[in-house]
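User: I'm putting together a small comparison set for a docking exercise, and I want a reference complex before I start. The sequence is below, and the ligand is 2-deoxy-2-fluoro-alpha-D-galactopyranose. Could you produce the 3D structure with the ligand included, as structure tokens?
Assistant: Of course. I'll restate your input first, then give the structure tokens for the complex.
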Amino acid sequence: MIDIPSAESTADDFEDRYGRRPDGVWSAPGRVNLIGEHTDYNDGLVFPFAIERRTWAAVGHREDRLLTVHSGAMPEPAQASLDALSPDGFDGWSAYVFGVVWAMEQRGVSLEGRTGFDLMLASDVPLGAGLSSSAAIECAVAIALNDEWELGLTRRELIYICQLAENGAVGAPTGNMDQTASLMGEPGHGVLIDVRAETADPVPLHFADEELELLVIDTRVHHEHATGGYGARRKSCEDGAAAMGVDSLRDLGEADLPRALETLDDETYRRVKHVITENARVARTAEVVQQDGPRAIGDLLVQSHASMRDDFEISCPELDLAVETALTQGAVGARMTGGGFGGAAIALVDAGRAEEVGAAVEAAFAESGFTAPIVFVVNPAAGAHRDL
Ligand code: GAF
């Protein structure tokens, strides 16, 4: 039997490891992005939601200046000192934890006179599936330390701290969609994010009211945003904005596409076109879901996938097959979700048909000789909070 972690089990693991009860347990969720891909670092619009899969952080204070982290998923604990925090010294996964403390200091939190902590992490957010397992760790640690050290930081400030941890300590040049979804999610709601305006508004999704379920299809093709295509896409967007004479692609709309076609080389044009049209699709999806309900957003999801497959070129055969099969099986809409180059697809399906659609995707993967996918249903869930 697989042990699914919880706040209680994480507190017990803390006690087994450190010989005392923790001061508290906090948790933060992974996320699914409903629509709006690679728009966040272009100052754009995004529409993700937090999911029930979470990372728990049990924390207890220490008398000295050391930080110790254990995780059930990792064989070795990691340690750092509040007196010598530098991203160069963070090893592997511990950068997600110590990076948050480093980022707090970078953004003006004084570490002077503070004592260290012991921490136990547990998570059921799948790693490398494009569901923000990394943001879930960062946000759980950030919200825990905000309480434990009585910092009084706002959620907006925590978003920027966690993004800085990801960019400066982990080394992934991401935007802040994942951290925003994890910190601002609400049960039953999507989070409509306007990165430029610094807003994150809850929008009811009504999946259950409309007898729909959201299926995640983890292709198990692993991706890594600290290296590879993600940074290359970001650079194309920056180059495209510079060539068009604007600060960011958010300054462009669909009316600018003819000029972009004349100005940019073919590849940069297609990257820019994806971002411009994706921003428009996010705005439309938020309107349509409120006016006509979630059954009416299917075409927008499908168009988003086509744009990522053909123009932004971040899909892969497994993601395309997952989307095509789900649609053939009658899904209302389907698209890849997250940074791309692997990870997961989502499909909005009639409640009760999730198993059938999942089985069809599994069969199609087997027929193509792909690794068996992992398919599960997610629900829009609560953002980061204190559990115990
Ligand atoms: C990853 C990044 F972390 C996000 O910031 C976002 O850019 C996403 O890819 C693509 O939309 O999840």
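Residues 37-38, 40-41, 174-175, 177-178, 225, 338-339 surround 2-deoxy-2-fluoro-alpha-D-galactopyranose (CB under 6 Å). Residues 104 and 292 are 42 Å apart (CA to CA).
User: Thanks, that's exactly what I needed.
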